[in-house]
Amino acid sequence: MTAHTPPTPPFRDPQLPFAKRIDDLLSRLTPEEKVSFLHQFAPAVERLGIAAFRTGQEALHGVAWMGPATVFPQAVGLGATWNTDLVRRIGEAVSKEVRAMRARDERVGLNVWSPTVNLLRHPLWGRNEEGYSEDPRLTSAIATAYTHGLRGDHPTYWRTAPVLKHWLAHNNETGRDVTSSSVRPRVLHEYDLRAFRGCVEAGAVAGVMPAYNLVNGRPNHVSPYLREQLRAWTDEELLVCSDAGAPSNLVDSEHYFDTHEEATAAALVAGVDSFTDHGTDSSKIVARVEGALEQGLLTPADVEAAVRRQLSVRFRLGEFDPHYDPHAGTGEFDSPAHRTLAGEAAEQAIVLLRNDGALPLAADTRIAVVGLLADECKLDWYSGTLLHRSTPLEGLYERFGAERVEFAEGVDRVLLKTSAGTFLKVPTAPEATDEVRGAEGALDPALLAGRTDLPPLTTDATGTELALVDWGEGVLTLRAPDGRYLSVAEDGRLRASADQPGGWVVQETFRLEPHADADGNTQGNGHLLLHLGTGRHVCVAADGVRVAGPDEENPEVVEVIVVESGEDAVTRVTAGADVVVVVAGNDPHINGRETEDRTTLRLPAHQERLLAAARAANARTVLALVSAYPYAIEPGPLSAVLWTAHGGQAAGTALARVLAGDVSPAGRLPQTWYAGDADLPDLLDYDVIGARQTYLYFEGTPLFPFGHGLSYASFSYADLAVRIEEGTAHVSCTVTNTGDLTADEVAQLYTRAVDPSVTRPRRELLDHHRVTLAPGASAELSFEVPLSAFAFWDVAQGRWRLESGPYDLLVGASSTDVRLRTTVTLEGEPSAPRPVRRRGLEAADFDEQSGVEIVDRTKVSGDAVTPVAGGTGELAYRACDFGTGTTRVTVTAAGSGTVELSLDGGPVLATLTLAPPAPGPYDHLTVDAALPAGGVHDLRIGLRGPLRLAHVGFSG
């Protein structure tokens, strides 16, 4: 007998379109198998030869969490390059390393959760380092470049499948899973959605991840915008992956639904396709989906729609066509090209903020380099493990010679004396291995445990001198002479065991608390040492130093003996130098990170003291800020100021090359640097228009403006020309390098509506070009801007509208350094009054507000407006057309309170009372009253009490 080869199933046939292949595969999967695919860790289906699949691989600025990889500058640093070609090449390199790493470790996933396109609206946001810019167009341009690199150029098969984070309006870590961002329609469309939309429409995005927060009272994981906006922008299937634990938050912390079956069903129907919850354990999500199906909350078609989207990504990644996948076997890891690219990126990310001529440094300069970041190459939560490392000190040694460079870190060197008169001692551990946190890789690095193979601290008569750093807010780190940080492992023992502070819960930070006696009096220099990771005080026991147990009340009282202050160390090395370079900034795991917002723009006091000491000792002081976010500093006394984000593996070499003039700095600020905390709105105020936030609306004087960055060269701008043709503004100009060295210039094109009918941006970026020019060379730059870029979201019409009138076009080197300008008159639509007699008013479509927030009208869709904390609020609606006359007004609202209406700032003409209150926030009542009105008027509505106004109608 002859064995017959079974026919190839259609889903395995590469000649068929993906859609037909997915149809075939779905028809072969059982209902149980389809449900199992909804968890992040989808199991294998062996009977069909289908492998297991995992959504999610962090790759924000290099492959993260999976061990050693090329580490590029932080995302905000990539934003500072303003270089889309560079960022595309970085995305390409990262995707090749993903492929190479997956070839040897199947835990590495091809569905990458990057980039982050949340806008850097507020500089105190803890995750500022993850975004690109405060501007939606710049963010979209950089993110689109990165996703194109991650995706690859093949028309059918993708090298990796990028998912954008975090949908939507997410800029606070404080209460991030329970706070609601109140986002008015104009801010929604003109600001928050715009960054996502450009990326999706560019065609290199596989999906999005909803954020933990709520928007307008409704969790992002059940957002109607996933359907109404996101999926309307493209014909491609988009995969929506939940954030970790967010599906459970819908019940457990947000209390938005009563049961997990309801919550899971609502998220799936809204558009979530893959549930990241309970780690690798899929059983709970599977049970919830099955329960929702049994209760009629879901249909099999709902499940199949989500599985289809996941399969679409898997087919595009070549999983089912291994012989046709052009990316199979094309991985590239830690190649010379990738190392060079990391160096190029680090150089291009450096921004020169101020320079009185001190830079660049001559080759024979004697340099004192000081500061807490001078000999550091810091990593953040989304970094890979370093293969190569370059600190500013190492870079300066290499570039200028070690004999010309003096160094002082500026830590306070201290002994900690116990109440018994002994000192804390770090024992020697000669056989300890040199482990680096995360070097082995982990699907969830939050689960990595601290080391217990080293001996715990003890006490003796001499003790160990420790390096103490105050990172601000009283948060300290303590480091042993061998470079290891004091840390606490699961057994509660205190050890010098960590290579750096890190982890989901940092175990290397402490706080010194003044000790009070029974009468409440502090005892001199006596302190309790609080370990912040456990929230427990340090105590001395017979078997070593540890944190106190939950029921223990015997914390050790320690006295801090300062052997040498950081200021003294700085003064010692700076006086004889030609120039002092102070390297200051942040540790990305302390005071500003995921789960923790900053509280101030100021540099920590410890670093301010070091800077003051350096300046007092040597007038020629250069400040190099290495940080994940802006600071408010006083630049006046300083000879030069530079800023760079944590620049990855090549950061130190890059900074040294810029200081030496080997490279002219050309980075530009991707967000406004404010002069002080008083310039900032509340962290939870997402109304960038009403609160006058970001360079778009800020009316004050910034410390450094958006787009700012100096060069060692000089540039002239000329020959501005504008042509309006076929729906596009064609803008061109000539830029010339008038300096004496080759350098990059970033030419920026802005617009401003001259006479708008509503509040419009003071300046708005339209496009930019980064160009390299030799001395004396010129380049003609062209910008092609669709006229739709000049439109705004007209709340009166509920759509985009290009307003007729004059618009300034501004070209220059920053948002305030304008070199060329002209005005063009655009033909658009004239302003029209609101047809309130015909359509009424959606409450959230206001022009101005005070004291209100937008909330959810129902759990599925729609908005309402309510006074903050049930107090009072005011709404203004401009140019409302009441036609030939109305006689009555009707309000639809829930809750209790009163609604007051007036016209043109006059007296209250109608008061409507809702009482007694309806049973719940979604139980709306309709109340009417007399309101005689005719013609066009500005309408003002006052809200009094905890009511939720949804709609106002007019009749008669």
Shape: globular
Low-confidence segments: none
Number of helices: 18
Strand segment count: 49
Alpha-carbon distance between the termini?
Answer: 89 Å
Structural class: alpha+beta
Approximate strand percentage: 25-35%
Average pLDDT works out at 96
Helical residues, percent: 10-25%
Tell me the Rg in angstroms: 30 Å
Largest sheet: 8 strands, antiparallel
Short description:
This protein is α+β, with helices and mostly antiparallel strands and 956 residues long. The protein contains 18 helices and 49 strands. The strands form 14 sheets. Strands 15, 18, 19, 22, 23, 24, 25 and 26 form an eight-stranded antiparallel sheet that branches.
Describe the model:
- The protein is an alpha+beta fold.
- 20% of the residues lie in helices and 29% in strands.
- The longest helix has 21 residues, at 84-104.
Question: Layout of SSEs?
Answer:
Elements: H1 18-28, H2 31-36, E1 41-42, E2 53-54, E3 68-69, H3 75-81, H4 84-104, E4 111-112, H5 136-151, E5 161-167, E6 180-181, H6 185-201, E7 207-210, E8 214-215, E9 218-219, H7 225-228, E10 239-240, H8 246-252, H9 260-270, H10 283-294, H11 300-316, H12 336-348, E11 351-355, E12 367-370, E13 385-386, H13 392-400, E14 405-408, E15 412-417, E16 423-425, E17 458-460, E18 466-470, E19 476-479, E20 485-488, E21 494-498, E22 510-516, E23 522-531, E24 536-541, E25 544-547, E26 557-564, H14 566-574, E27 579-585, H15 605-617, E28 621-626, E29 640-644, H16 651-660, H17 694-697, E30 715-725, E31 728-737, E32 743-753, E33 764-773, E34 778-786, E35 792-794, E36 799-801, E37 805-812, E38 818-826, H18 836-839, E39 841-842, E40 848-850, E41 852-856, E42 863-867, E43 872-881, E44 886-895, E45 897-903, E46 908-914, E47 925-933, E48 936-944, E49 947-955
Parallel strand pairs: 3-13, 4-5, 5-7, 6-8, 7-10, 12-14, 12-27, 27-28, 28-29
Antiparallel strand pairs: 1-2, 8-9, 11-29, 15-18, 15-26, 16-17, 18-19, 20-21, 22-23, 23-24, 23-26, 24-25, 30-31, 31-34, 32-33, 32-37, 35-36, 37-38, 39-49, 40-43, 41-42, 43-48, 44-47, 44-49, 45-46, 45-48
